[in-house]
Amino acid sequence: MPEIAGAVENILGRVRNPSRYMGAEHNAVSGDWDPDEVNFVLAYPDLYEVGTSHLGLSILYSIINAHPRGRAERTYSPDLDMERELRDAGLPLFSLESRRPVGDFDFIGITLQYELTYTNIVNLLDLSGIPLEASRRRDCDPLVIGGGPCSYNVEPVAPFFDLVLLGDGEEFVGELIDLYGAWKGGGSPVTRGDFLKAAAAIEGCYVPSGYQPIYSDNGDFEGMRVQPGYPPVVKRRIVTDLDAIPVPTSPVVPYAEAVHDRAVVELFRGCTRGCRFCMPGLVYRPVRERSPGVVEGCAREILENTGYEEISLVSLSSSDYSCIDPLSERMARELGEKRTSISLPSLRVDHFSVALAGRVREVRNTGITLAPEAGTQRLRDVINKGVTDEDYTAALETAFGSGCDQLKLYFMMGLPTETDEDILGISRMVGVAREIYKESGVSRRPLKLNLSVACFIPKPQTPFQWEPQLGMEEFSRRVSLLRDNLPRRGVRLSYHDPGSSRMEAIFARGDRRLAPAIVRAHAMGARLEGWTEHFDGSIWERAFEDTGISEEEYLGRRGIDLPLPWDHLDSRVTKEFLSGELARALRGEITPDCRWGPCSSCGVCEGTVRNEVFSADDYS
Amino acid sequence: MTTPSCRVRCCVSISKGLRWVSHLEFLRSFTRALRRADLPVAYSQGFNPHARISFATARPVGMASEAEYVDVFFEEDLIGGRVKEDLGRVLPSGMAIPRCEVVDLNGASLASRVNASRYLFETEDLDREHLMSAVTDLQRATELRITRVRRNKPDRELDIRPGILSIGSPKRRGAGLAMEAELAMGGEGGVRPEELWRCLRAQLAGTDPEGFRPIVTRIDIHRREGDRLISPWCL
Fold this sequence. Notes:
- The complex is a heterodimer.
- By secondary structure, chain A is an alpha/beta fold.
- Chain A contains 21 helices and 19 strands.
- Chain A is globular, with a radius of gyration of 24 Å.
- Chain B has five helices and twelve strands.
- In chain B, helix 1 crosses helix 2 and helix 4 packs across helix 5.
- The longest helix of chain B is centred in the N-terminal third of the chain and has 15 residues.
- At the A-B interface, helix 9 of A face helix 1 of B.
């Protein structure tokens, strides 16, 4: 490999925002390379400003670097201008810390966050000069390992990965380093194949090459042929005690402005609200809270080590944290003196959450975001959203009463059983918001209301995994219906591009036959498709045609008794629970949260795996 | 909100490894370093209070520096040594803080006082005689017209010769060459280091124009009044 550091310097003078490729950020590890260590390059398959905000990779970065035999560096998708420069100069993609070719590392860890980053994954491997298909890699090539939400149906990209982790990585990664270290040190396992088979014995570790899909003559998926020595299903890895795992208290502070330019501390993992469309709400069960004292201590340490002006207390639904009231109040008091603000993402639609947001932050100045998801009580019951009309009006009264004059509402369209009545329900909810605002009389300025509508995407491992996605034409008709029933002024309607939602749906429930289409689309220039300005649906039309894929087959309803391409990837929630939930949904029956209500028998809890919830009384 | 009671002038260096950091990114990272140091920085009043700091000048992306001057206003009386020590401990690697001094709280802003800067150009792939003759040509020239591309404004043609205050002869350093120049800064007559280099390159007929790019380092910043040179510590 050429000495690339100098060549990279030349290029940086010609690209936009070059600090994204520079490395040397505060708290990044130094560029000292030791070939005897187990070297990881953690790759976020999107631009630096998105990737540096990702908590999961930040956790792994600190754990691997703290391991006596491990070392982790980082890389991100290059922007288009940088990619062109690299290709023109014949340079490989490199790591930020030591500016080494990605191909020199033992492991390339790629996070699977979002289906529309799949072409970026191909691009990362292609720019690194590594064979795209795991089956073509030799012993000297890096092992490509994936993880993250899309791993629960990783099949469309499975051929590109040697290994995929299902579940929490904190404990897993150390075991992987130990196993690999033994191989690298010349012990057993001996070959790459032996190593993969040994890795498959680690709980949570999926080795796609050990599983071959079987299709019937007419192309239906019939199941997986499991190679000898591989488990029939791969069970998700779970960390049960969040207080026992390390927290990255010295995260890298990027120079370039990140999309979430703030400190982050995790309140809890998992959510048992049971929204039936929500994959994270199923695959991250049970609820595992971090104790408030640990949260507080970590927050203090992170702020001391970074200097951030804001700290975000994250989780799937932060206002559900058992000690959120006393914790946020204490932190707001302490941090206010240091001019540090607190943010609580993912608030629920109710009085409590909005009042809470108002206490930790001036809602008056920033506005408030609520996600009722559906326009009628009937449909909200179908999706088990657990938000009533009373919750909604109470949330708005609280927000407007404190002087808030900006409201953002999120809805989904195309949910199972949705009718025009539900669409009109959205416009009625907009009307209710405007009415309550007027009555509150707090502000004289007109309410600024942004209404955002997304296309429902049936996700694997959820009760709606068998449901079809709404066609693009019907989606457009429903959007028009909504628009025609909105007030002419004072509401800004925006909606997701149905073309990219369609792509997301195809890959969410896809199988391995889609991999060649991804490679083809990449060859035709598909890149950075999460960015609206870069997404081009016509490329995909041609890519599917060239590779003989019928899109409709992936978008339609699935037979409830038929095998699914992700059946061998076990999130620990049973298929019986999912189909039962679907039946309840269609009957409009809700299922209460098992944190406070009865057990819903989802199948996750066993032994030490169970909801771990504190009590606000224990903390004062 | 808080009335500043003390103003400390800091000289900050930015290594070659960090030269791709933009001015805005530097500002943000310096502010965060002040927060890590837990120094009693004064904040502006108003809707969106921000730390009261001001820079002598903005550094172009791609330039290293031994002399970025930042004035920081504090709520408490501090001594320069403490700021230097506390801040030095928490600066990102690649940044250093060679000197800090308390200056007059109500003095004019540095930005309004400094008017010239010295730069070091380092290049590895040029022949010394070659560059020497280009420098000599440039020193002899009475006029150097260039086109300046400006963002959101029409291109402008101007003579940069008056703004080239001095230019030294290239010297061997390590495997390459090093050359110093002093250029006027700010306002109409200011000259950017890359503009000087563009003129030099134009003199270097026969060499590959893309083949060499110097690394530029700001080595000093000051006020020049004729032959008199006033350092930022005395402004």
